[in-house]
Amino acid sequence: MSDKKNVTCIICPVGCRIEVEIENGNILNLSGYRCRRGLQYAKDEVTSPKRILTTTVRLKAKGAHVLPVRTRAPIPKSLLKEAMKELKSVSVAIPVKMGDVVLKDVAGTGVDVVASRSWTE
Question: Which pTM does this prediction carry?
Answer without folding.
Answer: 0.82
